[in-house]
Specification:
39% of the residues lie in helices and 22% in strands. The structure holds adenosine-5'-diphosphate and magnesium ion.
């Protein structure tokens, strides 16, 4: 049985209902809320993310997907609620502590620093996500050993993503798709247990999209839990083991990909907000 089948099979008996319990949840979130003025951007009663699976987070533009990622990963600390990762409370931890626990995200708009080289971006990813201060550089021998390990890991990731020939180029010279790969590589510098990818495929050409998808499924097959935001329903159907649909901040539907495509609440949500969302016929095809 392939890993996708394993991950999908583990969820086979789970009811397609918002907030449903999973057999082996890595992340469990309760009452997650984030408002901007009077707008309830996120208002999630209960959500569980199954370990070892690829969960797609879908929903029309403005549904609150990015905000939910921001709150759960500690980049936005203006929210409230309780969430646990591996059974341990993670709510209200700052981003670097969240990353240290093993939950790492990428951004909808890539954060690659264009005036640093590709390698330097990865080095920065390793230290930034561990929340290390520059004083570490004072502790020379230890620092050097760490630095070597970081460079080795960076080189391995660059080879894996076929970016090795760009190692010493400025990140600013990379194509949009290559930046997405760099962003993924940077997130992997800390060997996360869970990857949160915000529109990893946006702006990536079809050839690179295929390779990104393969990297994502490979990571799942190696045991990484993945949650990704995606608009392209073909991508969602082709990759995910489970789909969660957000609308106006709330989970309005979740279930296996096939069930979600024909879910009336999901179709309604997309019809209600045409803004850049996939047309409804894409959902039912
Ligand atoms: N920093 C912010 N200040 C005010 N409103 C925001 C902010 N961030 C997001 N929003 C609003 O919250 C809602 C959810 O946005 P977002 O999470 O980006 O949605 P999605 O990622 O699903 O497209 C939108 O209405 C958006 O305008
Ligand atoms: Mg978004």
């Amino acid at each position: 049985m392939s890993d996708r089948n394993n991950a999908t099979a583990a969820l086979a008996d789970v009811a397609a209902e918002p907030g449903v319990a999973k057999p082996d949840p890595l992340l469990v979130a309760d009452n997650v809320q984030r408002s901007f003025g009077g707008l309830h951007a996120v208002d999630v009663d209960h959500l569980e993310i199954q370990r070892g699976a690829i969960t797609a987070l879908i929903g029309p533009n403005g549904a609150g997907k990015t905000t939910l990622f921001n709150v759960l990963t500690g980049f936005d600390r203006g929210g409230s609620g309780d969430w646990r990762f591996e059974g341990k409370k993670m709510s209200r931890l700052p981003a670097h502590r969240v990353a240290h626990r093993g939950m790492v995200r990428t951004f909808q708009l890539t954060k690659a620093l264009s005036r640093l080289t590709v390698l330097e971006n990865l080095q920065l990813g390793a230290t930034e996500q561990r929340g290390e201060a520059m004083f570490a550089s004072v502790v020379r021998p230890l620092w050097r050993r760490q630095e070597r390990a970081i460079i080795e890991r960076a080189d391995a990731l660059l080879a894996r993503f076929r970016l090795d020939h760009l190692r010493d180029e400025f990140a600013g010279t990379l194509s949009g798709g290559q930046r997405k790969l760099l962003e993924l590589a940077r997130a992997l510098m800390v060997q996360p247990r869970m990857l949160m990818l915000d529109e990893p495929m946006a702006g990536v050409n079809p050839a690179l999209t295929q390779s990104l998808l393969e990297h994502i499924t490979d990571l799942r097959d190696e045991g990484t839990t993945i949650c990704f935001v995606e608009h392209d329903m073909d991508m969602v159907m082709g990759t995910s083991d489970w789909v969660v649909c957000l609308a106006e901040g709330q989970v309005i539907a979740e279930g296996p990909p096939q069930a979600i495509g024909s879910n009336p609440a999901v179709i309604d949500a997309y019809l209600g907000k045409q803004h850049g969302a996939p047309p409804a016929e894409e959902l039912t095809s």
